[in-house]
Amino acid sequence: MPIDSQTSGSPFEPAAPKVVFEQQLETYFIDKAPFQIPASTKEAIVKYVPWINLVFMVLLLPVVLAVLGLGALFTPISFLGGLGGGLTLIFTIAILVLRALALPGLFNRKRSGWVFSYYGDLINIILNILSFSIIGLLFDVVFLFVLFQVRSYYK
């Protein structure tokens, strides 16, 4: 019985459908990757990264709220600065929301957590391209590599 690309290897257990660009990126971050992360390291990543993510989100919450407050204060003169600041703020809020939505799934090792993290990183890549942040883009590519390496842990 042939198994198509949407199944996980068992004819009785279909895999979750692939999300945007997942199939293409899988080729580069898993199949053609220069190396594979060892299983023990993957296990540590899956175990501790949700906690690290939670701590960073809690630490960033006052900063985001302050920026939102200052943004409201400067709204009447925001046209002078162009669209850059507002666009960055919108992207940042979207990324934070996606990372917050990912937390329960990451803690429970569910695919939904992986997908929300994946989408958050894709939006972060777009933000780094629009803001010409080469260092941020490099970090995002490394994060995507790690995310694809541990994808099999999220069912």
UniProtKB/TrEMBL annotation:
<keyword id="KW-1133">Transmembrane helix</keyword>
<keyword id="KW-0472">Membrane</keyword>
<feature type="transmembrane region" description="Helical">
    <location>
        <begin position="80"/>
        <end position="102"/>
    </location>
</feature>
<feature type="transmembrane region" description="Helical">
    <location>
        <begin position="51"/>
        <end position="73"/>
    </location>
</feature>
<feature type="transmembrane region" description="Helical">
    <location>
        <begin position="122"/>
        <end position="148"/>
    </location>
</feature>
<protein>
    <submittedName>
        <fullName>Chromate transporter</fullName>
    </submittedName>
</protein>
<keyword id="KW-0812">Transmembrane</keyword>
